[in-house]
Amino acid sequence: MPETSGPTGRTPETDVIDFRAAEQLLAARDPRGAVKLLDDVIAAHPENTAARLLRARAFFAAAQLRPAELEFTVVLEREPDNAFAHFALARTYERQNRPDQARRHFRLAAALDPNPQYLSRARFEG
Q1: Positions of the TPR repeats (predicted)?
Q2: How far apart are CA 92 and CA 35, in angstroms?
């Protein structure tokens, strides 16, 4: 009998397959499909930061900004030095017309990683 990760009968292999499929769905511009797959992965592995970051990106792509914000925040609680998560949270705040919060996270992203895209959005001069 295969090893399961919980009462749903899911196996670790199923979770990996679903994670990879969710990456493909997001790349194919189907963020809602990606979220649906990732919900089960995260239910089985709530500590999995990579799955949470991918789900946050999918929420953002689907314009579900509040769930995206919450998920990016969870990622940053676990990985405060994740420059991409700061940048993505800043973009989420920007789309919610929350410029002060956006600026703070753009600057944190740029401070953690001198990526030109992060630096250009940080606007350190003002």
Answers
A1: 83-116
A2: 17
The pTM of the full predicted model, rounded to 2 decimals, is 0.89
Look up residue 56 and give its two tokens.
Answer: 């946050």
CA distance from start to end of the chain: 61
Residue type, 38: L
User: Which pLDDT tens digits describe the chain residue by residue (126 residues)?
Assistant: 344 445 457 888 999 999 999 999 999 999 999 999 999 999 999 999 999 999 999 999 999 999 999 999 999 999 999 999 999 999 999 999 999 999 999 999 999 999 999 999 998 754
Token code pair at residue 122: 């940080």
